[in-house]
Amino acid sequence: MYISLLGTRLTRAVPANVVALGLVSLVTDISSEMVTAVLPLYLVGALGLSLVQFGLLDGLYFGVTALVRLAGGHVADRWDRRKLVAGLGYGLSAVCKLGLLAAGGSAAALGLVLAADRTGKGLRTAPRDALITLSAPAERLGGAFGVHRAMDTVGAFLGPLAAFGVLTATAGAYDAVFVTSFCVAALGVLLLILYVRDRRGPLTARVRLRAAVMREAGFRRACLVAVALGLVTVSDSFVYLVLQRRLSIAPELFPLLPLGTAAAYLVLAVPLGRLADRFGRAAVFVAGHVALLAAYLVLMGPAWLVPVLVLHGLFYAATDGVLMALTGPMLPEGARTGGLALLQTGQATARMVSSILFGLLWAGAGEGTALAVMAAGLVMAAATAWRTLR
């Protein structure tokens, strides 16, 4: 009864298709965050990878999506089949959870599996976000993305809890986490097939991506800003590793660290999305990076657990969906998936470079120096972003 009432209220606030996409993301994020929550400690602690090796794998986790996002966006626009392309991405990521079992302790095999998993994410993200922009009115996109990201974050909150529960019940069996994650991911694919509706336009609405991007100077500026900020964004895994080492957090409690980020994101995603619709998406987006800068400063100082995680969640709530809501309406419908894929490709490539650089800095000069370099870069990038986007 409560779930039915909640669903009714959500569909009044945003279109049903956005709610359906949010439900798919919720279930899928339970699966993916189960793995993400244990992966840093599994690779560094259980398998003994060095920080440089972990930085390379973490960068690969971001960067490989750059190889497929544009292709996926182009195919989705050309075929006008956004749901199909997204479904292929969700399915591939689900299968990769079993691939982690087959990889064992081989760093090379793990790299291949993580690359395939990120290929799936690269395929699905732009078509999914394009479907959201095509399912909600332009003036309410911030709120629509806020609702979607809030539902997505429920999954991000439940995933680490599920991983913690499985590890506790199985006395630390990582294989059990991977199998459970696969089962949950398969459910997400089924929900996509049953409940998400595609949004298909007339053939005349299709536009060449290059022509659309060349016409939209604002979109090009937003892409450059996203890349610059991505270069100075420390990945979640490194944030949690710094906290774990600074505060001597027990390994079995490590999977719970993402819960603080997810809780803050969940509470703030909808209010900040609506705030962005009302007062300006660019301002909220830049303010989110100011929150990230504050998280860096706390990490460099007392490393207080709760403030770092709350600021981390605030950063995501103010930037993730808000950037898509800001840039989506700049593009014609026939090139929207490819355009968002181009933007996300720039972000993914930048974050790949950031992870590799941070791992090298940490290994060579220490975590404090690595954070200081990122903080200085973020100050300059955020100031440039404000001047460019406002």
From TrEMBL:
Domain Major facilitator superfamily (MFS) profile: 17-390
Record flagged with keyword Transmembrane helix: yes
TM ranges: 12-30, 42-68, 88-115, 150-170, 176-197, 218-241, 253-272, 279-298, 371-389
Keywords: Membrane, Transmembrane, Transmembrane helix
Protein topology in the membrane: Multi-pass membrane protein
Subcellular location: Cell membrane
Gene3D superfamilies assigned: MFS general substrate transporter like domains
InterPro entries associated with the record: MFS, MFS_dom, MFS_trans_sf
Main location group: membrane
Pfam family, one: MFS_1
CDD domains: MFS_MJ1317_like
Tagged with keyword Nucleotide-binding: no
Protein name, entry field: MFS transporter
UniProt source species: Nonomuraea spiralis
Phylogenetic placement of the source organism: Bacteria, Bacillati, Actinomycetota, Actinomycetes, Streptosporangiales
